[in-house]
Amino acid sequence: MAPPVGVTGSDLTRKQWVYAFALVTSLFFTWGFAYGLLDVLNSHFQTVFGIDKTQSTLLQLAYFGAYLVFSPFASLFMERYGYKRGIHLGLSLYSLGAIFFWPSAKFAKYGGFVGCTFVIGCGLSCLEVAANSYISILGSPKYAAARLNFSQGFQGVASFAGPMIASRWFFLGKNATTLDTVQWVYLAVAGLGAVLNILFYFCPLPEITGDALAQEMHEAGILADEQPFLKQYHCLFGLVAQTAYVGAQVAVAALAVNYITEQGIGIDKSQASQLFSYCQITFTVGRFVGVVLLNWVDPALMLTIYSIACMTFALGVTYGPGKAGVGCLFSLFFFESICYPVIFTLGTKNLGRHTKRGSALIVMGVGGGAWWPPMAGAIADHISTAQSYVIPFSGYTIMGMYAVGMVISQARTGGFRFRTVDEIAEKRAELDHSPSPAGGNRESDSVTDKKGTQEFVEVV
């Protein structure tokens, strides 16, 4: 089958743009809900199956390891069949993995939960390659980070809904030591995936292709995608930064319930799970605050500032006593908020024909969530949960190095900038101001053409 003929975000009408944006944004809720439940299940399974913290992080290993394994396949699939079919594949795997939580709960098999979580992770990796890439290129590059941050905000809404449900149903009464409610929750999750699959089947979704994006860049004089993919260094280092950041974020969340209960301030697991949902609310609020800021502040500069804040508060969680440590944990969730979408947009910027491959590479970075939690869990088991937060600190440090590197790279090519800019529009403006081959001025020629067209329309 030939690759689908596509358009760019600028080719869509306002109605088409709003429709496509809203439909794809709905996908962010699916993996936010699954991720929110995952962190609470981590703690719940410690009680039900009698496993230690390190063993419980097998769920994170399966979930995020799936991103590392399946993202390249998702990229190849969408290169050939387009975004819409990639979304169908992702939603099908998501629903399939959720359905098999039922027999795993029925027969109380921890290995079954780990396997189902891997299948769900494969589905979500496919959805993330499609949705993150689609949203970031659905319009002006100037607002790509803000646009993706807004959509990712709905993932945050779902991620705190998961722990809130869990605090009410998983940890109270007899549910604290059984798996009965887990199977019903995941049956509902499977139903959500099936409904979304049906909606996407009956709804047209404009296909945005790498060739169309490349043409738009080349017309503005940006030829970065003519270099081989392995020379797109901002994307390759973006993979490293995303791996480090996601690993740090997942390690923070995976042990948050344990950390809160061990701070000696009289909080049990049910209350800690509820506080964890408030942490996720803080994260979500941070996302929407980031949307406003990223409309004005350069994404690379913003990521640098937030990286420093994350490093600072990670150390605060490690060494802060009692309520001070919990306060640092809340602050850490706030400053984590913009990191994933900003790294994604910086890493996939100006990739043109390499866009889908680059998107898959950055999404592979989510696999970092499989590495950092076991390291943090081992420290939590042998020393303390508080000391385990030095592992996330290392991840934020790597992310900060990438952010500083991007600021320096931008400064060397176009000067230091505080405000966010549309590079394609700037390049077009430069071309318009340059002399035309006939000795005239491109801008004046363009203006003349536009005036002539307007006058013609008015006469008609």
Automatic annotation (TrEMBL):
The chain crosses the membrane at residues 17-38, 58-77, 86-104, 110-131, 152-172, 184-203, 236-260, 275-294, 301-318, 324-346, 358-380, 386-409. GO terms for cellular component: plasma membrane. Residues 428-460 are annotated as: Disordered. Keywords: Cell membrane, Membrane, Transmembrane, Transmembrane helix. Residues 442-453 have a biased composition (Basic and acidic residues). It is a multi-pass membrane protein. It is found in: Cell inner membrane. Pfam families: MFS_1 (PF07690). InterPro entries: MFS, MFS_trans_sf, MFS_TsgA-like. GO terms for molecular function: transmembrane transporter activity. It comes from the Eukaryota. The keyword Protein transport does not apply. This is MFS general substrate transporter. It comes from Dichomitus squalens.
